[in-house]
Amino acid sequence: MATAETVYNTTTTVQEPKPRRFIVPSENLDTVRFGIKVIEVLLSFVAFVMEEAVSSCSQCGPLYFFEFVSCTAFLFTLLLLILLATVLHQKVGINCWPTLDFGYTIAMAMFFMLASIVFAADNGQTDLERGAVAFGFLATGAFFVDFVLFVKKQGIPCRKGNNQPADRTPRPESEKLNSNGTDSVN
C-alpha cells in the first residue's frame, strides 16, 4: 500500500536538474572561440609531436625554442580551454578571465610566430622540420584569429571604463576635479 508521502512526493516536488559540467557558450567563451581554441590545441600538439620526431639537429637552439613554445602552447591552451569550458573556472581564485584569456592569446600568438620564424630560418630542411614549421604557422594563425574574434566580441579588457572611449574634451582643471569622472557640466 502506497503512503501519501510517496504519491505526493513524486508529483509535487520539483526535481532540480543536474548541474552542467560543460558550459559552452558562457560569458567567457562562446561556441566559435571554443572551436578555435580546440584547433589551437590540436595544431600546437601536432607541431610539438613533429618537432619531437626530429632525430638530429646541427644547431639545436631554434629547435629547442620551437619545442618549448609548441609544448607550452599545447599544455596551457588545453588547460585554459578546460577551465573556461567547465565550471572549474569558478573554483579557481581568478576573477579576470577575459583579461587572462586576452593576454595569453596575444602572447602565445607572438611567441608562436617568433618561434616558427626562427625555426623556419634555421633548420635541417627535413620533411619533419618543414611540417613542424607549417603547423607552427597554422597555430600562429589560429591564435591571431582567436585574438581578433575576442576583440570584436568583447573589446580590449585592459582598458578602463569597460571599453568606453576616453573623454578627450578639454575642460578647466577645476571642472575635472569636481566631475568625479562624469561628463556632466555644472
Automatic annotation (TrEMBL):
Residues 160-186 are annotated as: Disordered. The chain crosses the membrane at residues 31-50, 62-88, 100-120, 132-151. The keyword Transmembrane applies. It is a multi-pass membrane protein. Keywords: Membrane, Transmembrane, Transmembrane helix. It is found in: Membrane. Residues 177-186 have a biased composition (Polar residues). Pfam families: MARVEL. Residues 28-155 form the MARVEL domain. GO terms for cellular component: membrane. PANTHER family: CKLF-LIKE MARVEL TRANSMEMBRANE DOMAIN-CONTAINING PROTEIN 6 (PTHR22776:SF25), MARVEL-CONTAINING POTENTIAL LIPID RAFT-ASSOCIATED PROTEIN (PTHR22776). This is CKLF-like MARVEL transmembrane domain-containing protein 6. It comes from Carassius auratus (Goldfish). The gene is LOC113059568.
